[in-house]
Design a protein that fits this description.
Helices cover 31% and strands 30% of the residues. By secondary structure, it is α+β, with helices and mostly antiparallel strands. It has one domain: Gcn5-related N-acetyltransferase (GNAT) (Aminopeptidase).
Length: 215
């Protein structure tokens, strides 16, 4: 048996005009970890509730490996988290995550992402999330996608706004003894359909459907 026969998600590939989204090989995962080690946000910023990206370079790299391995090891049709590495010309830039619990019933996914700092402000974040959401809405039958963001994270807010997300309340969490407010955002199918998916191609999904709990 091949790896893809045993774990079909390795055959799932999303292509956009500039990007390729897929699971990385172990060698590519090591290169992705190096991207994280080099930094994913400016030192003054704190964009994540879990401050993994503020830790020393080696810890950031190890976090990337643990996240990828954990998502595969704990995968189940009722609770899954798909971490798609974002590639340009074979080079990893970051990750976009699509996650769901009881997707077959709820038809709702949540998204999160990061890109290496040199790749910010080039439209890659919007293009990567568009590609990932194409799988969720157009191929898996999602009804909603959600995201959470700190109000001062202008880049993430901008991605969500461009794709049609709307306000969906707030969340209050504690980080380092401080209460932080996040804005919840929601994208429904009607607003999703207004997005132009020209040039987005999805391959290798059919063998994965049982893993997503929809076949």
């Amino acid at each position: 048996m091949t790896l893809t026969e045993v774990w079909p998600l390795f055959g799932l590939v999303i292509r956009t005009p500039r990007l390729e989204l897929r699971l990385p090989t172990d060698d590519e995962l090591a290169r992705l970890a190096e991207v994280a080690a080099d930094g994913v946000h400016e030192p003054r910023d704190r964009p994540f509730l879990t401050p993994w990206a503020e830790r020393p370079p080696l810890e950031r790299a190890r976090h990337v490996l643990r996240s990828a391995w954990t998502s595969r090891g704990e995968w189940g049709p009722e609770d899954w988290s798909l971490g798609l590495t974002v590639f340009v010309d074979g080079d990893p830039l970051g990750v976009v995550w699509v996650s769901a619990t009881e997707f077959a019933t709820r038809r709702e996914v949540s998204t999160a992402s990061w890109l290496g700092l040199p790749h910010h402000r080039r439209g890659f974040g919007t293009e990567a999330r568009l590609g990932a959401l194409t799988v969720a809405f157009d191929h898996l039958g999602a009804a909603y996608a959600t995201s959470e963001v700190f109000p001062d994270n202008a880049a993430s807010v901008g991605v969500s706004t461009r794709l049609g997300y709307q306000p969906d309340g707030i969340s209050r969490d504690v980080r380092d003894g401080e209460v932080l407010v996040s804005h919840r955002l929601r994208l429904d199918r009607e607003r999703w359909e207004r997005n132009d998916r020209t040039g987005v191609e999805v391959s290798g999904l059919e063998p994965c459907l049982t893993m997503f709990g929809v076949a």
